[in-house]
TrEMBL record:
Protein name per the record: Pancreatic lipase-related protein 2
Catalysis: reaction(s): 1-(9Z-octadecenoyl)-glycerol + H2O = glycerol + (9Z)-octadecenoate + H(+); 1,2-didecanoylglycerol + H2O = decanoylglycerol + decanoate + H(+); a 1,2-diacyl-3-O-(beta-D-galactosyl)-sn-glycerol + 2 H2O = 3-beta-D-galactosyl-sn-glycerol + 2 a fatty acid + 2 H(+); long chain 1,2-diacyl-3-O-beta-D-galactosyl-sn-glycerol + H2O = long chain acyl-3-O-beta-D-galactosyl-sn-glycerol + a fatty acid + H(+)
Any one GO cellular component localisation term in the record: neuron projection
Subcellular location: Cell projection, Neuron projection; Secreted; Zymogen granule membrane
The protein's Enzyme Commission number: 3.1.1.26
Biological process, per Gene Ontology: lipid catabolic process
Source organism of the structure: Toxostoma redivivum
Pathway: Glycolipid metabolism; Glycerolipid metabolism; triacylglycerol degradation
Gene behind this protein: Pnliprp1
Enzyme category, top tier: hydrolase
Keywords: Cell projection, Cytoplasmic vesicle, Disulfide bond, Hydrolase, Lipid degradation, Lipid metabolism, Secreted
Family: Belongs to the AB hydrolase superfamily. Lipase family.
Length: 257
């Protein structure tokens, strides 16, 4: 059984006979997309983990792309009905849209076992364990019987719009150069299966010999990494023309470690 943001009002906190529960099937996976409290945030989806594995994309409360202005949502590309519905219950309806996308992307929507979304964002639960990470959605049942814990919470990030899956990488950059500057460092990944856009690794003071780490959620699974593009910019014209380079760049793939 796959629970697509099962309802919170009238169901949360009730006996298991009343609501979805892991005892309802051999394997119950749940996608939580609107689990903020109903009062005062109008969350429609249940908060607690109730299945064998529970996915909390983007933390499970506010989905990217659901905070765009009302007019742009109602006059939606998919039609006025779809747009109006999304305006009223965008977070809640993301669950079935993620599930639809998961059928097309068997390698997408990897969920990382973590105690909280904040810990996931900080990289504490990266990379996947040796046995791998479950895929949220249609292929979650590949992990049937692999978890022995009572409840397993899995976190991941998604895109703002279709196509929703993102792939997580850890990027570590050690800078080289002669002088400290202010600015930002961007990195793009190139691989056997595609290239990513530029992702910001750090911004602020850039010091040679310092190492900067970021976790990026890329819109493409690049496959085997073949090249990394490094770019820095100080946003203003500096008459001393400082030079900055990358002594080393390390890329760690969440899925394969």
């Amino acid at each position: 059984l796959s629970g697509l943001d099962p309802a919170q009002p009238y169901f949360q906190g009730t006996p298991i006979e009343v609501r979805l529960d892991k005892t309802d099937a051999d394997f119950v996976d749940v996608i939580h997309t609107d689990s903020a409290p109903t009062i005062p945030y109008l969350g429609f989806g249940i908060r607690p983990a109730i299945g064998h594995i529970d996915f909390y994309p983007n933390g499970g409360e506010q989905m990217p792309g659901c905070d765009k202005n009302a007019i742009s949502q109602i006059v939606d590309l998919d039609g006025i009905w779809e747009g109006t519905r999304d305006f009223v219950a965008c977070n809640h309806l993301r669950s079935y849209k993620y599930y639809s996308d998961s059928i097309v992307y068997p390698d997408g929507f990897l969920g990382y076992t973590c105690a909280s979304y904040d810990l996931f964002q900080s990289g504490s639960c990266f990379p996947c364990p040796e046995e791998g990470c479950p895929n949220m959605g249609h292929y979650a049942d590949k992990f049937k019987d692999k978890f022995k814990n009572d409840f397993v919470k899995l976190f991941l990030n998604t895109g703002e719009a279709k196509d929703f899956p993102l792939w997580r990488y850890k990027i570590t950059v050690t800078l080289s150069g002669k002088s400290q500057v202010r600015g930002y460092v961007n990195v793009a990944l190139y691989g056997s299966d595609g290239n990513t856009k530029q992702h910001q690794i750090t911004t602020g003071h850039l010091k040679p010999d310092n190492t900067y780490t970021a976790y990026i959620d890329a819109e493409v699974n690049v496959g085997e990494v073949t090249k990394v593009k490094f770019l820095w910019n100080n946003n203003w014209i500096n008459p001393t023309f400082p030079k900055l380079g990358a002594a080393t760049i390390t890329v760690e793939v969440g899925e394969t470690r």
